[in-house]
Amino acid sequence: MSAVLQPSVAADRKTFYEKIDKASVTPLWEVLHGIITPPPHTPCLPHLWKWDQMWPWIQEAGRLITAKEAERRVLVLENPGLRGRSSITHSLYAGLQLILPGEVAPAHRHSQSALRFILLGKGAYTAVDGEKVTMNVGDFVITPSWTFHDHGNPSGDPMVWLDGLDVPLVELLDAQFMEKSSLEAQRTHLTEGDNLAQFGNTMKPVEYKAKSRTSPLFWYPYERTREALRTMQRGHDPHACWGHKLQYTNPVTGASAMPTIGTFMQLLPKGFRGKEYRSTDSTVYSAVEGGGRCRIGSETLIFGPRDVFVCPSWMPHRLEADEETVLFSFSDRPVQQALDLWREAF
Ligand SMILES: [Fe+2]
User: Fold this and answer.
1) Ligand 1: distance of its center to the CA of 165 in Å?
2) Residues 6+ positions from 185 with CB-CB distance below 8 Å
3) pLDDT of residue 185
């Protein structure tokens, strides 16, 4: 309320507010314009985390604490506008997880859904519900809500991946549960590749019945994604805003691979100069190949392989690439779409 008030009216109102405040009641008109805003008003800020800065700190964390002791040895990427809240956007969490040769990150499960996007290394595994998958750079792996998962690294090299979880969203809903397994590493009774064979070939077992909204396919190897983008590029013009962009889907339903997190991979052709774009889903990007710029507000985020950056809700931005560039991204888009809230403009 900005109008100049008679002192007596102002005093009466103040007395009234103080009286009702004692009973946990507050006048809407004092806060209305801050909570129902004409455009989205997010505390999330544009930000870039450079791999070259993060990698020495990840290695230092590796010397300071074991994966077993930490349970998960992760450096959380906290949005500068959301410090102390373990959030990279208002609704999502992200971190860089390290697993060193010979280590095991013990089995547990939780309500929060998680994605792993592999940045560095070869030969470490994630086990989900009795099946192991050996991960490579650019692979996208899902650990669905309430499924036991553990990670191990029998290779000779460190592995680092980007974790993306719906932690803040689940916290908002007060729906979080977590349980540790009695086994450090779960028994894997399925052949590696079983899941991809069943659901990764545009087919499904005839007796399959979905147990959740999460994709029954939990491993999307980069090799296949990259080949799809390569083929797309040969036969189609790039979109003016996002180049060639694919969404990871649940192969059975065609919906988003995860119910709370939308995941995407896009190719920006060499010399790409994207048109301005904005959408209501604050989006986290990580480059796999190439490099370029994200021009957002007065800032230019210059990114290369393994860097991570954020574009907040409804902020116009443009993507540019001087060389052929492949970008992974994730956001809360499926949640907004399910609630009829999602918008985009370009
Ligand atoms: Fe976990």
Assistant:
1) 9
2) 104, 106, 107, 127, 150, 152
3) 85
Residue 15's Cβ-count burial label (10 Å; 0-12, 13-18, 19+) is: exposed
Sign of the C-alpha dihedral computed for residues 51, 56, 57 and 60 taken in this order? positive
Q: How far is the CA of 179 from the centre of ligand 1 (A)?
A: 10
The answer to whether 309 and 342 are in contact (CB under 8 A) is no
3-state secondary structure of 224: helix
pTM of the model: 0.95
DSSP 232-273: HHHHSPPBTTTBEEEE-B-TTT-SBSSSS-EEEEEEEPTT-B
The whole-chain average pLDDT of the chain stands at: 96
Residue 76 alpha carbon to ligand 1 centre in Å: 14
Parallel, antiparallel, or unpaired for β 244-247 and 262-268?
antiparallel
> Nearest Cα to 186, choosing from 109, 130, 144?
130
Contact 284, 92 (CB under 8 A): yes
Q: Is the predicted pLDDT of residue 1 greater than 70, yes or no?
A: no
Q: How many helices (H) and strands (E) does the chain have?
A: 8, 22
- Given a cut of 80, whether residue 271 has pLDDT beyond it is yes
pLDDT score at 2:
55
| Mean pLDDT confidence for 241-255 | 97
**Distance from residue 346's CA to the centre of ligand 1 (Å):** 37
> What is the distance in A from the centroid of ligand 1 to the CA of 108?
6
Specify whether the CB–CB gap between 277 and 241 falls below 8 A: yes
- The closest alpha carbon to 309, from 290, 287, 325, belongs to 287
* φ, ψ for residue 307, nearest 5 deg: -75, 155
What would the pLDDT profile of 224-237 be if each residue is shown by its tens digit?
A: 999 999 999 999 99
